[in-house]
Structures are given as C-alpha cells and as structure tokens.
Amino acid sequence: MNTKINGSTIEISLEGPISEKTSLFELNIQNYKDIKLNMSKVTFINSIGVKNWIMWTCRVPTDAKLSLDECPFVIVNQVNIVQGFLPKNARVTSFNAPFLCEDCSHEHVIKLSENVHYNYAGEQESKLNLPSEIKCSKCSAKLEPDFIVDKTFGFLKK
Q1: What's the mean pLDDT when you consider all of the chain?
Q2: d(Cα 151, Cα 158) in Å, to the nearest integer?
Q3: pLDDT per position as a tens digit, 79-124
Q4: 49, 20 Cβ separation under 8 angstroms
Q5: Who contacts 51 (Cβ-Cβ below 8 Å, separation ≥6)?
Q6: CA angle, 66 as apex, 154 and 4 as ends, to 5°?
C-alpha cells in the first residue's frame, strides 16, 4: 500500500489481496474529506477481507468522499453482491471489465469510467454508454461484454 497526502485528500494505492493482512484497515482516515483508492493492483478479496472492508468503510467520515478507481472486476462484483460494501458517500469512478471476442475467444479487459461509460442515478436516470465498436486485437472482430450488464451496473442504482 502506498499513500499520498495533500491537505484533506489522501490517495491510497492498494496492491495484492484484500484480506486479514491488508494494511489499509489500520490506516487512520478520520481527518480526510477526500479518500481516493486506486485498486488497479488488487488481485482478489477473501471473506475476511470483505468483513474488514465493511468495518473500515464504517469508519469513513460521513462528510468525506470515497472514490474507488480502477477496480478489478472482482471488487465490482462484491459491490453488487454484498450489502453495505459501498457506503452512501462512495463511488466507483472506474473499473476493469472483461470483454470477449466471440470469433476467436480472446479475452480483453477494458477500463470503464464514470461520466464516459456510465453515470450514477441522481436527478436523472443512470445512463450506460458501453463501448460498442471495440475490435479484437487478434482477429479484429467485435468484442462483447463478458458480464451481465444490468447486474454489473447495479451499483448505479444504490
């Protein structure tokens, strides 16, 4: 884990598994108004990691913003499956989604970002704008999402 502090903002880069040994859970976050987590190097989360994560997010100040950036798909699944995984003051600002070439079965990971590919529900309906013309790097066929779109973007409605 690496941290960078700038006034009332803390940027945290996580690496490896989220488990009972994750040092994030020991970090004092009470004095920060903007907590930014880069999760690009998170490899997995186990059940104790989920429990500790929820306990940690309960310590995030209610007036702070929590941003999750470059989430691996396993984290997005937890957001949608586990009640309370993402507190009300948190947002998934981007995540890595699996796409598949149906012609050659090559798998691709595409970064999907808030305000580009999706918007949170607010005063208006949440909107999706998934990339539709991404070509396979191996055979140039069109890629398709390798996930259930409505289920994956369930976090937008919370």
Answers
A1: 94
A2: 12
A3: 999 999 999 999 999 999 999 999 999 999 999 999 999 998 775 6
A4: yes
A5: none
A6: 140
Supply the DSSP string of the chain, one letter for each residue. Answer: -EEEEETTEEEEEEEEEESTT-GGGG---TT-SEEEEEEEEEEEE-HHHHHHHHHHHTTS-TTSEEEEESB-HHHHHHHHHSTTSS-TTEEE-EEEEEEEETTT--EEEEEEEBTTTEE--SSS--EE-----PBPTTT-PBEEESS-HHHHGGGGG-
Residue 31 carries which side chain, given as an amino acid letter?
N
Tokens of 53: 């994560």
Q: Which residue has the tokens 């940027």?
A: 11
Name the residue type at position 82: V
